[in-house]
Amino acid sequence: MRILIVTHVVRKNDGQGRVNYEIVLAALAAGHSVTLLAAEAAPELVQHSQVRFVQVPTSRLPTKLLQYQMFAWRCGAWIRAHRNEFDVVHVNGFIAWARADVNAAHFVHHGWYRCGFYPFRLLHSLYHAYQVIYTLLNIACEKWAFRHAEVIVPVSQKVAGEVRALGIGEARVQVIHNGVDTGEFTPGAPERARFNLPQAPFMLLFAGDLRMSRKNLDTVLHALVRTPPDVHLAVAGILHNSPYPALVESLGLTQRVHFTDMVMDMPALMRSVDAFVFPSRYEPMGLVLLEALSAGLPVITVRTAGGAEVIARGSGIVLDDPNDAAALAVAIEHLAREPDYARRLGLAARAVAGTLSWQVMAERYLSVYEQVHARRTSRELPAACATASAEL
């Protein structure tokens, strides 16, 4: 097949970019040719003989709102000019003003806006007003993009529900969970000294954006106050402009919370802790949650996190309310006080991750491509025969 993938970035160290990166690798291994219409692509892909990289220049317009619209306009114009060169056109959400065969839904702004935890208010400030306008515009654009794609591929059942809420029929929706590198994220010897973590305490890990309330570190900190003093927390994420160091100090947790800032070697950090906590107030399908499962960590998460749906009974703890610090504290203490229970959860988590490898994910995307291509071929063949008959 001749495949076109349209995205902003295709590389390993990016969430959505990693998904597309793995799809490209699988497509090349299967003998397909791939064109990447993107702003940036990994050098090892660009240099491959079966890859064509069409770079879309980054706009210098002010605000991401205008920059993304310019990107979508440029991509749409290119696709319309070259559509007949491809058997499958794969886009990611709203990224181009053009029809597509496959649209991978990694995030649905309508779901985020309606989830109950959306933090912005139109009349609160200029910044809030901009965020609301940005979200509402994305909602309209995503509706258009989903309605102009043959198949929508949500990254979780949670996202699938949000796609259907936009009026998309069930028959056009095929869920494919994101993948994880089960060879890279694996249990192993801890390296706490490398991350300036104390050796003795039971160590939780929280990883995510520390500038937004959506990831819900505040509830984790309030839960930590309710746990014994020998339970500590490592926090991985960019600290610049984060309000959480001040909150840690106000709660009297300075000796128990260890900020690592951005960590490039997340597998080593995960091997150095005892459990992973991820009570995100809204999450389509967090890669970091899958990575924790693969690392064999007992995981505590919540139903508002899309990744929670892959956790079967006995392979993790899934709480109902992301804001319930008391329930979170009980779950944390259960793990800290019962090492055999924590160990069983970790082993089961690792088994779950084994069913969610990047290879499994990529092969499922290729299967969708083949279905789309087969349907397109079956539609075009009668038309071609009719044209040939008319000419005779």
TrEMBL record:
Family annotation (CDD domains): GT4_PimA-like
Residues spanning the signal sequence: none
Gene3D superfamilies per the UniProt record, alphabetical: Glycogen Phosphorylase B
Domain of life of the organism encoding this protein: Bacteria
Coiled coil: none
Ranges of residues in domain Glycosyl transferase family: 192-350
InterPro entries the UniProt entry points to: Glyco_trans_1 (IPR001296), Glyco_trans_4-like_N (IPR028098)
Domain (Glycosyltransferase subfamily 4-like N-terminal) ranges: 14-182
Annotated GO MF terms: glycosyltransferase activity
Designated name of the protein: Glycosyltransferase, group 1
Organism the protein comes from: Paraburkholderia xenovorans (strain LB400)
